[in-house]
Amino acid sequence: MLSPAPGLATDIESLDARLLAGCMKVRFDPLVIRRQRGNRMWDEAGSEYLDFTS
Fold first, then answer.
1. Percent of the chain scored above 70 by pLDDT?
2. How is residue 5 annotated by DSSP?
């Protein structure tokens, strides 16, 4: 498995802040998925999430 480049989550959050319209920025916490397998996903901190939309 490839590891994301250092600072990738910060880069993505910076692009998000600059490029998305204000109405699209209703977020409680930034969530950057590091990997996914089926309907299970893991973030940069290793927390696991279930994707109920897949």
1. 70
2. P
